Amino acid sequence: MIAGSPKSAPRVVEPADAGELAAALRAAADAGEAVLVRGGGTLLAAANPPRRCDAVIATTRLCAVHSYDPRDLTIGAGAGMTLAALAETLAQHGQFLPLDAPFPARATIGGTLAAGWTGPRRSAYGRARDLLIGSTVALADGTLAASGGMVVKNVTGYDMGKLYVGSHGTLGAFVRANFKVLPMPPARRFAVSRFDPGSRERLDAGLHALMVPPVALLIRDGFAALLDGDARGDHRPEIVALFEGSESSVERGVRDYRSTLGAAGVAETRILDGADAAAVFQRAIDSVVAPADGQEVTLLARGLPSEAVHRAEAARTALGANVPVRTLADLLTGDVVAGIAGDAGALARGVARLRDVLGRAQIVASHLPAGVEIDAWGTAPSTIGTMRALKARFDPHGTLAPGGFVGGI
Amino acid sequence: MSAFTSRLLEALGPDVVRTEPEDLAVFAFDAYSEDRLPAAAVIPRNAREVARAIAIARECGEPVVPRGAGTGLCGGAVPSRGGLVISFARMNRLLELDVRNRRARVQPGLINLELSHAIASQGVFYAPDPSSQKISTIGGNVGTNAGGAHCLRYGTTTNHVLGLEYVDTHGAVHRVSLDDPGYDLTGVLVGSEGTLGVITEVDVRLMTVPEAVRVCVAAFADVESASEAVSAIIGAGIVPTALEIMDALITRAVEAHYHAGYPENAGAVLLAELAGTHDDVAAGEALLARIAKDHGALSWRAARDQAECDALWAARKGAAGAIGRIAPNYYIQDACVPRTRLPEVMHEIDAIARDHQLPVGNVFHAGDGNLHPLLIFDRRERRQVDAVVAAGTEILRTCIAMGGTISGEHGIGYEKKESLSLVFSPDDLAAMGNVRAVFDPARAFNPDKIFPAGARCGEVGPPVHA
Ligand SMILES: Cc1cc2nc3c(=O)[nH]c(=O)nc-3n(C[C@H](O)[C@H](O)[C@@H](O)COP(=O)(O)OP(=O)(O)OC[C@H]3O[C@@H](n4cnc5c(N)ncnc54)[C@H](O)[C@@H]3O)c2cc1C
Ligand SMILES: Cc1cc2nc3c(=O)[nH]c(=O)nc-3n(C[C@H](O)[C@H](O)[C@H](O)COP(=O)(O)OP(=O)(O)OC[C@H]3O[C@@H](n4cnc5c(N)ncnc54)[C@H](O)[C@@H]3O)c2cc1C
Fold first, then answer.
1. Edge-to-edge strand ranges of the sheet holding A35-38
2. Coiled-coil intervals in this record (chain A) (predicted)?
3. Which of A184, A219, B265, B412 is a plausible cystine mate for B416, CB 3.0–4.6 Å?
4. Residue B394 alpha carbon to ligand 1 centre in Å
């Protein structure tokens, strides 16, 4: 359950390296304690709080680059390294890792992997799970287990990294991760337009046929404007697109995109370039989970790209004309985000209703009043039995974040 | 007839169940090795029949081995303990095609290339393209997490599987998807070589056919300089769709059979493919050609038309077969190193082969650092068989010492299970064992595969096929 009430403070441990982290886990397991692994702490309010938490193990000091030869297009780094620090290291060699998580200055590699975060550029570059080529994890019994390696193609044993990605620290703690990285695209443009709600369908229909597609394409509705639209009293929905690639392909992509928008009746598009484009795109990602005002809950539902616009529309009207729902429709990945504000009762009812409309939807951000509890996960998948068995096998004493995950795992 | 076979026959009928030795012989081997006959094979028509067969096998204590086309190169589909083989020869349909959302649902027995052909007119394609794509199945590709020449840009099979339907050891049918909350069971099942579940449907991701594709061929004096060019291309931040190298021995064998137009007198040939917009492809080619020339390329040319591209690719993908026509027997090794180590590892492989007096051909996915030395031998000569085993193991050790691994795409299967402990510690293996214990506590699904048996370590099993 997501709960608004404050918890009593557990002890915080900050191991200096993988060995110390594993030892801390073993000691906690031996003492029958429950442990929460923490990265940047940007997400701790999102999964259900664990049933018990005696100690927090912070990965802050596991922040070194272990191996980086830019000519290999691979990097290995400690789980506690922030995404911003990683990006900076890579940028020095004209490379990047498109993980697209919110608040990269605080979010860590381990936390991003554990949260299974998948951002809006995944149709172009793959998900975090696809970019991870090797990892070392500290298991609940204090052993360190590696899988994968430093090569980009590897079928040596089970692909354990996939199991730990998205496991929210319930099977083990990432201590190190290896990624394949990408050369930084030479050109980047971010396009922002406001449009009349009536042209939504027409836009969607024209945009999926672009020969040079954007790497991210989102319709934002009810979120704070990325540029200065709100200040001008313009609260129409916003369509945003990120183009990346060679100068010529980006130029062509933007040109075709603008003419498609034009044909759908969108008059004005603002284009940002280079670093500005990257900064505003990051703001669009942050806005998914950033608090807007007061008590609120934000849900994320996955689905088919072709249905994203329609599903976001259904979410927006789900609570009636008087209850605003802010939505985000990802036209490339099919993700739909829906956020609501209100008092305790309204939030609980709203989440239930949105889950009726969107199907399975996970809470990604919440600011709840004291005493309110809403399950972050919703209905468990039919394979929950296998998932429970995995948890029992990897963490027989329930040391790692017991109760915080899907189906009470 | 045993209780096992009669129960199978009773439940599924003679059309689905095979029990005669002459019918079972085809299920005893794959492209790596041959083993005993299974007690029975089933050729089911749907997941329900798969589930029924598995339930019966489990009740009778018989192991279960799923089988695609049997083109695996590590003994993965071989029924080393007899039992039940499940063939997907009849579950070979494209069930759903959703072009708008770039996805398709297929049965596991569908041949890889048939999927691509079926959807080509819609402007989409399925990216993983193992050289065996004309005969290997999507289910087998998922089983081994198959790679292919185009993995360099597009990734391997696991990056193109969105969800699965599988049957567990109790005969229960499950569906998993990347969109499910909870643990990524899809990701764990892909590449598990039939040891965790039997896959009965696959949801695959499709990609848009690019506007332009250009295939180029460069000749080099030797494999080392071609490898250096590849390292330099990757290091310069260019990721073409494919970067493949063939050495002189392979190039000559391939040309003798395919006449595709590869330079026959070169020490090594680089095959590069670029895809994207017309402008990007043109600019990319100029850059690649310059880097290649800077690294000693003797010639560079682009294929003139589609027919020539197809011919170059067909010849490259037929390399193993072409060697098969000129060599008494050959053994394909599969290993992977960080790409900067390519020139060095090629040098080492050459030295190892020379030490063992074995001719070696090299045809490999250079851009990924994924090597395929082909050791040529005659299996009637005991000395040569021993030499191949020893050389194969030395190559693996060399790759590991360079920060690489023992399989880039063919899998561990039966062949390399003892070598797994060269790469992973007992703790690493225990974590994998945990997964096995959850999905298949009785180790009834594809026993003797992937994991070392114990004592014997670091040997490559005897190659038996050509
Ligand atoms: C307010 C907010 C809400 C978010 N909600 C979600 C969400 O619901 N779902 C989602 O997928 N993403 C969510 N994200 C994105 C997610 O936080 C980021 O992807 C990620 O960057 C978090 O990194 P962190 O270091 O802050 O992780 P943290 O917040 O510290 O931890 C995230 C999760 O991972 C675990 N964890 C942290 N480090 C490790 C490690 N080394 N090994 C194992 N487990 C570890 C934690 O126990 C926790 O369950 C949210 C982000 C924000 C800012
Ligand atoms: C000439 C030649 C070239 C090759 N080139 C490549 C290449 O470029 N790249 C590459 O990766 N491989 C290559 N291979 C190896 C082989 O083709 C691949 O491993 C392929 O994926 C095997 O597919 P298959 O249908 O033949 O499967 P099989 O060999 O029948 O089975 C492979 C494994 O998958 C399991 N399996 C099969 N079906 C299922 C199912 N439905 N559910 C669960 N498990 C299942 C089997 O038990 C076995 O462990 C090549 C082989 C040959 C002979």
1. A11-13, A55-58, A35-38
2. none
3. B412
4. 43
Best probe residue, ligand 2, of B73, B91, B129, B416 (max atoms within 8 Å of C-beta): B73
Rounded Cα distance between A316 and A338, Å, is 8
Q: How many CB atoms lie within 10 A of CB B398?
A: 20
The tokens describing B157, both together, are 């099979």
Residues of B in contact with A336 (CB under 8 A): none
Q: Do A72 and B338 touch (CB under 8 A)?
A: yes
Q: Say what the pTM is.
A: 0.95
**Chain CA centroid to CA B402, Å:** 22
pLDDT digits (tens, 9 = 90+) for B349-387: 999 999 999 999 999 999 999 999 999 999 999 999 999
Relative to the CA of B197, which ligand 2 atom is closest? Answer: 43
Structure tokens, A123: 């149709």
pLDDT tens-digit series, residues B79-115: 999 999 999 999 999 999 999 999 999 999 999 999 9
Task: Read off φ and ψ for residue A69, nearest 5 degrees.
Answer: -115, 105
Least Cα distance to B365 among B127, B151, B159, B221 occurs for B151
- The strand ranges marked E within B94-220 are 94-98, 103-106, 124-125, 161-167, 173-177, 198-205, 207-208, 212-220
CA distance B422 to chain A (A): 11
Q: What is the CA angle B331-B337-B339, rounded to 5?
A: 125
Longest C-alpha distance within chain B, in Å? Answer: 69
